Amino acid sequence: MSIDVDEVKKIAKLACLNIDEADIQSYATNLSNILDLVAQMEMVDTTGVTPMSHPFDVVQRLREDVVTESNRREAFQAIAPKTEDGLYLVPKVLD
Question: Is there a domain that residue 88 lies in?
């Protein structure tokens, strides 16, 4: 697929990009090359290929979900301006 200079200008305007006039042709060439590569990749037969979330066969090491601190809600709420039933009360912002 080929992108011309006018299309690059339209894309730049839509994306609010300021591209120098001298660079527009190189942008058009690079974008055309990228789209050609995508077209080539679309033609590859991927039947039977299992999708991967990662290129390496790795397992995420996770730590145990253990409580490491005590509940200090009452101490924190004691210094809060307003609380009710264990919740912080704040001024209304939206009507």
Answer: no
22-67 pLDDT tens trace? 999 999 999 999 999 999 999 999 999 888 888 888 888 888 999 9
Distance between CA atoms of residues 54 and 72, nearest Å: 40
Question: Dihedrals φ, ψ of 83, to 5°?
Answer: -140, 160
**CA–CA distance from 82 to each of 28, 74, 79, 85 (Å)?**
60, 12, 9, 11
Task: Say how far apart CA 6 and CA 27 lie, in whole Å.
Answer: 11
User: Domain for residue 93, yes or no?
Assistant: no
Amino acid at 63: R
28 lies in some domain: yes
Residue 55 φ/ψ, nearest 5 degrees: -70, -15
Number of folded domains in the chain?
1
Instruction: Give the domain range for residue 18.
Output: 5-42
Residue 89, in any domain of the structure = no
